[in-house]
Amino acid sequence: MKHLVKKATTAALVASMLCTTAMTAVQAETLRFISWQTDDGGMGDWWRDAIATFEAAHEGVKIEFTKVERASYADSMTTLFAGGQPPHIVHLASFEYQTFAENGWMENLDPWLKKDGIDMTGWAGQDTCRWNDETACIMLLYFGFMMAYNPDILAEAGVEVPTNYEEFLAAARATTKDLNGDGITDQFGTGHETSGGAGQYLTELLNYVLSAGAYWTNKEGKVTIDTPEMIEGLTRYKTIIKEGLSPVDMSAGDVRKLFADGKIAMRLDGPWLYGTMKKGAAADRLKIAFPALTPPVGGSSNVLGMASEISDEQKQLVWDFIKVVMSPDFQRKYATVAGNTPPSPKADVSGVEESVPHFPLLIKTQKAAAAAGVDRIPTGLEIQYGEFGKMVQEEVQRMLIQDLDPADVVKTIQAKAEAIQAG
After folding, report:
1. Is the Cβ–Cβ distance between 213 and 376 less than 8 Å?
2. Which residues touch 325 (CB under 8 Å, ≥6 apart)?
3. Mind giving me the DSSP string for 304-364?
4. What secondary structure letter does DSSP report for 264?
5. pLDDT in tens, 350-405
6. Which of 2, 33, 153, 197 has its CB surrounded by the most CB atoms within 10 Å?
7. Which H or E run includes 387?
8. How far is CA 218 from CA 93, 97, 214, in A?
9. Any idea which of 8-17, 251-260, 289-298, 403-412 has the lowest mean pLDDT?
10. Which percentage of the chain shows pLDDT scores above 90?
């Protein structure tokens, strides 16, 4: 209950903060842009660069760049849209935009693309942005997870860089330690978000689900949770958390910073982790490898679009900003500054290794995730993903708190998922 109140409060605060600017053409010189990436290492820098470039080309027009925490993001955005105060520039996770598009809140971008003669052929993950036979958004990132690690911690524990789950578990156990003898663990083998929203929670959980050969649905959209593979996947996750191999009650951002400061041995994460790594106390010691848990978590990540219920003048300005982001210059910077794999097939990524040494590995993990058909959005549950995700998070947390048998938990999740899907 406290969690729900916190979300509602956050949404209300954002709405209150933004409603001071009425949505009229007269005030189109200020475009509202909400994101969870404002202070992310690399990504935040990339966004601010794009904003500065846009503002330099549009005298008198400003973009108000506001942060909302990822844990309460979808709820906050829903409140703003439902209340008639949406941000002009719409930034969403690829697994949550569908509900907004279904409600008619996302502008159809097909006419805008056609008007400027922009060909989206080969743009990675763009098919995910098609909803009701319209282009609801532009895919910003199609990725594959990597495994960052601290070689000093592994070496001190006498373990090699793991290449499979069994080795990963052994390494996590060997590197989880109470370093000062006060009875409190202050170095962890790995780290996962355990206190945030369902979207990130399920993403982290997928490391173990996929590595066990399981997934939420099949290609036809049938729920496939009550399986031996899913039991194994939940067992793996339960082992990591119950044995204290990961810190608890921390957001993904907190875990990333803890890893960057040398307090965690291994972190499975997307390309965006690199920006945080570079700013941490252990920056000069950290390395990156192909993930031990395979196939890698991956697929579509986040999307950019525009609100449908704004003036034509504002839509043109938003479209101009989207074109800045899609430009060859900023698609290259998506690699060199943000450390991500750009979706544009025309992006010049030559020499990116000079600023992002592990860039070839990012391409490898991206291709591995794509080859395995991995995506965080389960077929058949696209619109209901928010409800589905919250349900899975609650049941997995119940499994941990009450020490339930994963074999029983998968039956509960299966039944509830089928009920959600049936409406």
Report:
1. no
2. 50, 138, 140, 304
3. EEEBSSS-HHHHHHHHHHHHHHHSHHHHHHHHHTT----S-TT---TTGGGT-TTHHHHHH
4. B
5. 999 998 999 999 999 999 998 898 998 899 999 999 999 999 999 999 999 999 99
6. 197
7. helix 385-402
8. 22, 21, 10
9. 8-17
10. 88
- Contacts of residue 362, Cβ cutoff 8 Å, sequence gap at least 6: 143, 144, 146, 271, 339, 340, 341, 356
What's the CA angle centered on 61, arms 60 and 64, to 5 degrees?
A: 130
Asked whether the beta carbons of 410 and 227 are under 8 A apart, the reply is yes
- pTM higher than 0.70, yes or no? yes
**Contact of 175 with 246, CB cutoff 8 Å:** no
Q: What are the structural domain ranges in the chain?
A: 2-143+300-371, 144-299+379-422
Residue 335: predicted pLDDT: 95
271 close to 143: Cβ distance less than 8 angstroms: yes
Looking at domain 144-299+379-422, its CATH architecture is 3-Layer(aba) Sandwich (3.40)
For tokens 């700013």, the residue is: 279
Tell me whether domains 2-143+300-371 and 144-299+379-422 share a fold.
Answer: yes
Report helix, strand and coil shares of the chain as percent, to nearest 5: 45, 15, 40
What the block records as the tokens of 172 is 């996590």
How many other CB atoms sit within 10 Å of the CB of residue 284? 7
User: d(Cα 106, Cα 304) in Å, to the nearest integer?
Assistant: 10
Biggest alpha carbon–alpha carbon distance for the chain: 66
Read off the DSSP letter of residue 253. H
Pairing of strands 62-67, 30-35: parallel
Give the pLDDT confidence score for residue 164 in this predicted structure.
98
Q: Are 339 and 329 in contact (CB under 8 A)?
A: no
159: left (phi over 0), alpha (psi -120 to 50) or beta: beta
Task: Using alpha carbons, list the distances in angstroms from residue 217 to 198, 213, 233, 375.
Answer: 17, 12, 14, 11
CATH of 2-143+300-371 given 3.30.1360.180, 3.30.70.2860, 2.60.120.10, 3.40.190.10: 3.40.190.10
Residue pair 267/259 in contact by the 8 Å Cβ criterion: yes
98 in Cβ contact with 90 (< 8 Å): no
Enter the DSSP assignment of 116: T
Peptide bond between residue 87 and the one before it cis (omega within 30 degrees of 0) = no
Q: What percent of the chain has pLDDT over 70?
A: 93
